[in-house]
Specification:
The chain is mostly helical and about 550 residues long. It has helices at about 10-20, 35-40, 45-55, 80-90, 105-110, 120-140, 145-150, 155-180, 200-215, 235-245, 250-255, 260-270, 290-295, 315-320, 325-330, 350-355, 430-445, 450-465, 475-485, 495-500, 535-540, and strands at about 95, 295-300, 345-350, 385, 400-405, 425-430. α1 crosses α3.
């Protein structure tokens, strides 16, 4: 069993006892709940509470994956990570979805969403509920409360737990800042007290920077890399979040921070992570057990098909691209069975996005006898299959390409036959830090990667992918954007990248069905760089104003 799930079984019951989580609009947790103290009678309860916070990206309720604790079309769609990926990837050139029974899906695919979009509302609500969990945890782990319970001897250990919880809160706040810009800002004092105020994006950036730098300091209780079991966060996770924030500081605050992005990425790189030699092994069902994830993942969301089941995350990414042609792909790859356990038949990506990759001998002539290109001679990060129809049509899943980067495969050649995935999902990994360093270098040097160190990082990634290093004058910012598409495909970063480059709303960077236009040659309204805040929350809290345009 995976490490974190050794302590998760009691966590849901613990948090249910100490918090009120059932209502979508009830964001502050009830500090006066009569069961709060009994929930923390056991010394093990503190780690259980932290584990639940850690896993809130995947849990949709305190019971099972088929029973959501917020309003959603179905429980599986209410998972936080699933909707963050939808907002970050489905709204770009990365992939589209043909499911029309849930109106929010085509609205995201066609960039036609409004303030009632369910996907945006789920991501917003889940992040705020997670922050409420952290705030409750911080209240329950104050020194005075430990003393009152007779747990004084645990203070040093619990101080480390508190630091980890603060990192999680920062990550949830960063997600809100990136997607929604100006969210509510609930703190522990809002529990049982006044409704939270709204915070502007630049102010939230400043608060996050101070919070993360404090966690990264020598005096912090935040564990160093290797001090706690994977995948719990460490100072490496803190520095990685800072590096990503600094890379996008110009968007968040109006003031670029390229040198800070480079310096923080370099700090992470120096902490002892390593580029795992085989890219494919990062995205197998047993990426935890093989050590591939621990090598390169700086912070990850851990899935377990037996003990932490979710219809979102890597389960969705494994199943949603395929119909019955999964059997064909499995045979082509020499697998003992189909490449994925279930076929949801909704996601597909266009030839335009796939053109970012080096595909040798591309053909649409034999859709049922090959994956459509020479896999051995192509970029090893290109996990695609086509059914022979090049013209991309978002109403027909057999057009364009399917992606099997996330699948049911194990390192021993076997295939997962259960519905749920056990593949961990990376929030931060070392390859991203390499690319942050390289982009910051290019931004500081006229738009082309200049330093030997940055070129060395790029070469390491290219060597692993089995493709040549470009000439120095080709290492431009646009080339780096394409390299990020190749290296970080479907990892929840594409929208943020396109906004940073100024391409997200611009007609100069079309993609199929952008703005609902088939060739994508259209400008999106500028306000769509932010998603709308939840209207129900605005109605309940007069401190909050909607983002412009909605």
């Amino acid at each position: 069993m995976k490490n974190i799930f050794r302590i998760l079984f009691a966590a849901a019951a613990l948090l249910a006892a100490s918090s009120c989580l059932g209502d979508l609009d009830t964001l502050p947790l009830n500090e006066t709940d009569t069961t709060s103290e009994t929930a923390y009678e056991s010394e093990s309860s503190y780690l259980q509470g932290l584990a639940y916070i850690n896993a809130y990206w995947i849990f949709v309720s305190q019971t099972d994956p088929g029973n959501a604790d917020i309003v959603a079309p179905d429980p599986g769609q209410s998972e936080l990570l699933r909707q963050v990926i939808n907002l970050q990837e489905m709204t770009t050139d990365s992939f589209k979805c043909t499911w029309t029974s849930d109106s929010y899906v085509p609205d995201l695919s066609y960039n036609n969403w409004t303030s009632s979009n369910t996907g945006a509302n789920i991501a917003y609500t889940r992040c705020l509920k997670a922050i409420a969990l952290v705030n409750e945890f911080l209240l329950q782990t104050e020194d005075e409360r430990l003393d009152a319970r007779g747990h004084s001897a645990m203070k040093d250990k619990v101080h480390g737990y508190r630091a980890e919880a603060r990192f999680h809160r920062a990550l949830y706040f960063w997600t809100l800042m990136d997607l929604f810009g100006n969210p509510p800002f609930p703190m522990p004092e809002n529990i049982g007290g006044d409704l939270p105020k709204q915070i502007k994006r630049a102010e939230l950036f400043a608060w996050l920077e101070d919070e993360l730098l404090d966690l990264l300091s020598d005096s912090s209780d935040m564990p160093a890399k290797g001090a706690v079991p994977y995948p719990r966060p460490t100072k490496g996770s803190v520095a990685a979040l800072l590096a990503r924030m600094y890379l996008n500081a110009g968007v968040y605050t109006g003031t670029p921070r390229w040198q800070d992005a480079m310096d923080m990425a370099e700090k992470v790189i120096g902490m002892g992570y390593r580029i795992h030699p085989v890219y494919e092994e990062l995205f197998l069902q047993d990426n935890t057990e093989t050590g591939a994830a621990a090598d390169e993942f700086i912070f990850a969301i851990e899935y377990d098909k037996d003990h932490a089941q979710s219809w979102g995350g890597t389960t969705t990414l494994s199943s949603a691209f395929f119909d019955d042609d999964r059997h064909v792909v499995g045979t082509i790859l020499g697998l003992p069975g189909p490449i994925v356990p279930e076929t949801w038949n909704g996601y597909h990506t266009s030839d335009e996005f796939v053109s970012n990759f080096h595909l040798a001998g591309v053909t649409f002539e034999s859709p049922k006898t090959s994956i459509g290109y020479d896999r051995a001679a192509s970029d090893k990060r290109a996990f695609f299959y086509n059914q022979g129809i090049k013209e991309f049509d978002n109403t027909k899943t057999e057009t364009g390409w399917r992606c099997w980067k996330f699948s049911g495969r194990y390192s021993d050649g076997s295939v997962n036959t259960q519905s749920f995935s056990s593949m961990d999902f990376p929030i931060f990994r070392l390859a991203e830090m390499y690319l942050i360093y390289a982009e910051a270098d290019a931004r500081l040097n006229g738009g082309t990667v200049s330093s030997a160190t940055a070129k060395g990082y790029i070469k390491e990634l290219r060597d692993r992918a089995g493709v040549q290093m470009p000439a120095d004058d080709e290492l431009t910012l646009d080339w780096l954007l394409s390299e990020r598409a190749r290296e970080l495909m479907l990892e929840g970063q594409r929208r943020t990248d396109l906004i940073r480059y100024g391409y997200y709303t611009s007609m100069s960077f079309p993609w199929p069905y952008k703005g609902g236009v088939k060739d994508g040659k259209v400008n999106l309204p500028d306000y769509m760089v932010l998603f709308p805040l939840n209207e129900a929350d605005i109605e309940a809290n007069t401190n909050i104003e909607q983002n412009p345009g909605y």
